[in-house]
Amino acid sequence: MSTHPGIDPLDSIRKLQARLDQVDGATRRTLQTSIDRLAAELVGDVEGIMRTLADDFHLVNVAPDGTRTEGPRGAAVRAAFEGLCAGGQSTVWVEWEQFAVDAHTFAGIGAVRMVVPAGLAAAMGIPADPAAGPDARYSTTSHSAVFIDFDDQGLMTSETVFADPTRTVRRLAGPDEQFDNRQLAARLG
């Protein structure tokens, strides 16, 4: 599998795994849950994502202008992640610049990268090229700050994302730039 030159999506998880030996107890549990969630998002695994979330989990997005959007709760959370994962056709990861973790919080800053199919790109407001067809895939990158809260069982209760106003988007050129989620999953082990 080839990816963008010099980019290995698994590095986003490896960076967190490297910290596991430095923490213990509830902090280790929080970090492991974060790793499990990121691994599931990396390969578009909705069930894997849902296993990391508390029943009352909700999303909060804060736009560059400060507009705060409370995301779905309850059953609607599954639908949101099903849309994001696009039947396993999406790849989402974060190139962490910095992160901190304790017993009840994961906070990080980094470049959020996504590779999504044309239909999802259009739904996300990404200008998809109709001439490229429905099989076209798009890569997006945006810098974000992410804050995730955890309950006493180590499950995520909320995620707040502060997005940078700039986002780069490009259509992937061909097979040499495609992400194969099955190969990523195999490499995850």
Overview of this structure, please?
The chain is an alpha+beta fold and 189 residues long. It has one domain: Nuclear Transport Factor 2, Chain: A (Roll). It contains six helices and six strands; from the N terminus they run αααββαββαββα. The chain has helices at residues 11-20, 25-42, 46-50, 75-85, 118-123, 181-188, and strands at residues 53-62, 68-73, 91-101, 105-117, 137-150, 156-171. Strands 2-1-6-5-4-3 form a six-stranded mixed beta sheet. β5 (137-150) and β6 form a beta hairpin. α1 (11-20) runs antiparallel to α2 (25-42). The chain is globular. It starts with 10 loop residues before the first helix and ends with a helix. The mean pLDDT is 86. InterPro entries: NTF2-like_dom_sf. This is SnoaL-like domain-containing protein. It comes from Nakamurella leprariae.
Produce the secondary structure layout.
Elements: H1 11-20, H2 25-42, H3 46-50, E1 53-62, E2 68-73, H4 75-85, E3 91-101, E4 105-117, H5 118-123, E5 137-150, E6 156-171, H6 181-188
Parallel strand pairs: 1-6
Antiparallel strand pairs: 1-2, 3-4, 4-5, 5-6
Helix pairs in contact: 1-2
Give me some keywords for this one.
single chain, 189 residues, alpha+beta, Nuclear Transport Factor 2, Chain: A, 6-stranded mixed beta sheet, 31% helix, globular, SnoaL-like domain-containing protein, NTF2-like_dom_sf
